[in-house]
Amino acid sequence: MKPVIVVGFVGVTTGLIAEFQPDDSLIYVEEPDVVRKRHVREQIEGVGFVRGLIEWEYLTPGRADEFFHAHRDLDPAAVVPAIEYATPFAARLAERYGLPGATLGAAQIMRDKALLRQVTAAAGIRNPASVRVTSPAEVLTFMRDRPIVLKPSNRQASVGTQVIHDPDDVEQAWAHCTRQDEGIFVPDRPMELSMLAEEFVEGEEFSVEMLVGNGKPLWANVTGKQLVPGPRPVELAHIVPADIPPELDDLLKRETARVIDATGFRDGIVHCEWIVAGGVPHLVECAGRLAGDGILDVVQLAYPVELLRCYYAVLKGEDPPSDLPARAKSGAAVRFLTIEPGVVESVEGVDEARQLDGVHLLQVTVAPGERFDGLRSSWDRAGIVMATGDTSAEALRRAENAASTVHIEVR
């Protein structure tokens, strides 16, 4: 049996993968530092579909070609990028094995937000004004007494991202945004610092999850988003499907198809984020991989659709193995738990919240005695609730009700 190579380990997907991957059929590739820090070998021990784990520094240029020469005999059925940082390596490795994939060119464009703006703007897609910056002085020159967003061009999970309204805050924001420690999720060696200053666009936020085969959309969903108030644009909730008019739903899907065409993306899934201002979608970013933050789970619940299985099938060069419904049959939502900085004293109400109507999942990721230093990125949230309902609005109400039932005391 030809194995599937998955680049980047995401533990929360193992249960979903087990539903369709046979025993001894999948090989993980992960950075050695991440394997050690996240105890990946312990997490995959005894998982039936796992054939093995190869430790490989895939974030280093040229390493996909080295991997191909070192492991030609693997002859995989597919190469699947599981996380943002794995997308260029996986795309190039798929090319070397002659398999479907994003293409290295598209993956590199999507991994660099500045390149993505350059390419998509040339294709006529609306982008916020944006410039690469290397110092607070350059940020101030771009700002010109208007609100802006300062962010990295090459990171994930809202790491190092901040909205700035006052020029007096630029120096401090630069210091905060250029400290981009993702802890156990990245290698210990430093990553290149690449920063953008961008026009702040105020409007409703959405993402489009689109399955793509041979450069053409096969299926798509629009997710509504809520953000935590304040200067750090960290997502507070995801609502599937977005509660919007059909005309806007169709427009966001068409614009995402234009991004696919502009970048030359061929096979896989894209997670494309938009801000709609004055009825016009403005591109925030587009990733050539599955959405995180529980979006995959709530998409699969709401439609329902075996999206992960379909994703693997497309990267194997096969037709999607199940129906792809055009419209969701019900609603589903993710709501994150947030807390103030301090030391966690107690966590109560978890069991009660889990018993509430529609609650599909509730996890708290902080414990008494832990210190919380504040919400800086998506990695810093205190827990997650997933809920379902007859409509997306009902699903969100149920998720919010469960979240409010959990009481986390912080000193």
Structure description:
With 411 residues, the chain is α+β, with helices and mostly antiparallel strands. It has three domains: 4-99, 3-Layer(aba) Sandwich (Rossmann fold); 129-199, ATP-grasp fold, A domain (Dna Ligase, domain 1); 204-410, D-amino Acid Aminotransferase, Chain A, domain 1, CATH 3.30.470.20. 30% of the residues lie in helices and 28% in strands. It contains 14 helices and 19 strands. An eight-stranded antiparallel sheet has the order 13-12-9-10-11-14-18-16, with helices on both faces. Strands 3-2-1-4 form a four-stranded parallel sheet. Strands 5-8-6-7 form a four-stranded antiparallel sheet, sandwiched between helices. Strand 10 (216-227) and strand 11 (235-240) form a beta hairpin. Helix 4 crosses helix 5 (87-97). The mean pLDDT is 95.
Which features does this protein show?
D-amino Acid Aminotransferase, Chain A, domain 1, 8-stranded antiparallel sheet, 3 domains, 14 helices, 411 residues, 28% strand, alpha+beta, Dna Ligase, domain 1, Rossmann fold
What percentage of amino acids are in beta strands?
Answer: 25-35%
The level 1 CATH classification of the largest domain is Alpha Beta
Task: Label the structural class.
Answer: alpha+beta
Unreliable parts: none
* CATH H-level homologous superfamily name of the largest domain: ATP-grasp fold, B domain
Task: Specify the helix fraction band.
Answer: 25-40%
Give the helix tally: 14
User: What global shape is seen?
Assistant: globular
User: Assembly state here?
Assistant: single chain
CATH topology of the largest domain: D-amino Acid Aminotransferase, Chain A, domain 1
CATH architecture grouping of the largest domain: 2-Layer Sandwich
Domain tally: 3
